[in-house]
Amino acid sequence: MAFYDAHNHLQDERFGNRQAELLELCRREAVxxxxxxxxxEEDWPAVEELARHHPEVLPSFxxxxxxxxxxxPVWLERLREQVDRIPSAVGEIGLDRWKPDLxxxxxxxxxxxxxxxxxxxxxxxxxxxxxxxxxxYDLLRSHPRPACGFxxxxxxxxxxxxxxxxxxxxxxxLPGYYAHxxxxxxxxxxxxxxxxxxxxxxxxxxxxxxxERIRHxxxxxxxxxxxxxxxxxxxxxxxxxxxxxxxxxxLIRRVEENFLRLFGHVWPAKLSSAIHRTTTEATANPKAPVx
Length: 291
Fold this sequence. Notes:
The chain is an alpha/beta fold. 40% of the residues lie in helices and 16% in strands.
């Protein structure tokens, strides 16, 4: 078995510099690869550092809409240099009309600039969207998009938009947070995601699954608050298999195919090595299926 995390933030300060320890547990849980997303200029170097020292880390760099107010006058030049310096995706980028007191002004300009960069270099883009789905669809439909496709991380839009977005090149990643009973609308949308567009994510350290599904508890060192461990990824897979009515083996196979289709051209050597390493370790140390 090999598990793939389509979206997390392993560089986050809330992990308290325990990334090497977390990754060791992820390897034992057969996590083959994870896309680690930078959110602003300040954390791009940390993402790059993780990618250079840990083969399972696939870096992605972008300006999250929550932080665009802090961007420097040369942010775009720095982003171009970043994605050219090391094989990477573009993200996390997007639109947000949900966060209180967050200005919407400027979000579309920054989003489209980054989407254009992804299209020019044919790099997958990881997109955040909250309460702006109609506008996002209009922008995606009318502007250049990466030919390889793009990821709608933690898709929370209407069920009716799944098919139109998929036709534009969207993939949809399911977080464990949607296993909470109140997330009925989001679960229904993921039942409608085409099988060849489904991906799985942890969004660690955020989006904790329900307590009964957490396999690896983790707490922020300073505050003691619970945070999401990236090694909970197999538990998210188990939830996704239940949601779709598939066997875990079927889900694992489909997600690997989808992950490699979207991201494989960016890191072919890294992903080939990750698959070989994880398969070899799984053969040497067989585990019971995740339940």
